[in-house]
Write a structure and sequence with these properties.
single chain, alpha/beta, 7-stranded mixed beta sheet, 9 helices, 21% helix, globular
């Protein structure tokens, strides 16, 4: 199984528009300015591509979906898992139409009941198309998922997490890899399904606390509790300088970056 980090940033992305507009005067540690010359500092909105022998799976269609699939040569999508219905995780959905056309089939999408409802509300023209349908509407099969399932050679388990007041937010366990990109708390029942992981991919918004996302120390607390063999941190704001702040990480934990590929 190969994992490609299509994006590792927050809803603002890195560099942020506001830092660019004010001349980077207030950017923490100059991260957004560094992103102008060092591509490892650029963070598009968070998404993951999972390529196995039997299936190509996307987790979330971010606002940067178009640029991401071109940059990383994603040639097939068999299914999409949605973590939740926030804009930075869903608004690339219309561009799935290109894969539907080339593959000559509808694509299965999965998420919680709440996330499926959000998608149908946000993209009414896709799920309730007009009588005259042109080439601009992706063909999708929607599935509300609330328990384990199998896609190809992947056993997929939704992991309910707390992300502010939003209901129906999931991370996912894929065989012995877990992906939790937007989370502030992992309930005890969910923690029980995250044991014995080869790789944990976990939200780490910034160093200081945040009301709806994990801070660095909170993320590392879950790493200590779950003891995965390896952990990569994602969904990072411009507050984190992945070079400077690597000194704060224990062995086996690292910051991910856009374009990072991992073989499992």
């Amino acid at each position: 199984m190969r994992l490609t980090f299509l994006g590792t940033g927050t809803s603002h992305g890195v560099p942020t528009i506001d830092c660019m507009v004010d001349g980077y005067a207030h950017c923490p540690h100059g991260v957004c300015l560094k992103a102008q010359s060092d591509p490892t500092y650029r963070r598009s909105r968070t998404s993951l591509w999972v390529h196995s022998e039997a299936v190509d799976l996307l987790i979330d269609t971010s606002q940067d979906f178009y640029q991401q699939v071109l940059a990383h040569q994603v040639r097939r999508i068999d299914a999409v898992l949605y973590t939740h219905g926030h804009a930075d995780h869903i608004y690339g959905l219309p561009d799935i139409r290109s894969f539907c056309r080339v593959q000559a089939d509808a694509i299965d999408i999965y998420g919680s009941v709440e996330t499926m409802a959000t998608l149908q509300q946000a993209f009414g023209y896709v799920f309730h198309p007009p009588a005259q349908v042109g080439g601009g509407i992706p063909q999708l099969r929607c599935h509300a998922i609330d328990g384990p399932m199998v896609l190809g050679d992947l056993r997929i388990e939704p992991i309910p997490v707390v992300h502010g007041p939003l209901s129906g937010c999931y991370g996912y366990r894929l065989n012995d890899v877990a992906y939790l990109p937007d989370v502030h708390e992992i309930p005890p029942d969910s923690l029980a399904h995250l044991r014995d992981l080869d790789l944990l991919i976990l939200n780490c918004l910034r160093i200081r606390p945040h009301s709806t996302h994990l801070s660095l120390e909170e993320s590392l607390g879950y790493v200590r509790a779950l003891a995965p063999r390896r952990c990569l941190l994602t969904h990072m704001a411009h507050d984190i300088d992945h070079v400077r702040d690597s000194s704060l990480l224990p062995e086996g934990v690292a910051f991910a970056h856009d374009g990072l590929e991992i073989e499992i």
